[in-house]
Amino acid sequence: MDTKLTLKLNKSVIEKAKKYASNKKISLSRIIEAYLQSLTSETENSEFEISPFVKSIATGVEIPADLDYKKDYSDYLMEKYK
Predict the structure, then answer these.
(1) Which of 69, 5, 1, 67 is nearest to 35 (CA)?
(2) What is the separation, in whole angstroms, between the first and last Cα of the chain?
C-alpha cells in the first residue's frame, strides 16, 4: 500500500534530484523509496547501490574533510604486502 510522504528539502537539492531521476528514467519517489528500503533492510539485496559516503552519513560515521583516501589506501597496501 502506497502512502503519501511530505518532505521539506532545499530547493536546489530537489531540482538536482528531479534532473537526476529524469536522466535515469525513474521517479524521484522510487529513488527515495529504494534508498529508505536499503537503510532499513537487513539484507544487502538492494536495487540501487548506495555509495559509501551516503552510507556513512546514514550510519553517523564521520569522514574527515581532509581525508586523503589514496594515501590511506596506499599505506594500507604497503603494510599488507610487507
Answers:
(1) 5
(2) 56
* CA distance to 8, 18, 20, per residue, from 11 (Å): 9, 11, 14
Q: If phi over 0 gives left and psi between -120 and 50 gives alpha, with beta otherwise, what is residue 53?
A: alpha
Calculate Rg over the CA atoms of the chain: 17
Q: Spell out the per-residue pLDDT of the chain, length 82, in tens.
A: 888 989 899 999 999 999 999 998 999 999 898 888 877 876 555 566 777 777 776 666 677 888 888 999 999 999 999 8
Closest CA to 67 of 81, 78, 52: 52
Torsion sign, CA atoms 71, 76, 61, 31: positive
Looking at the whole model, is its pTM more than 0.70? no
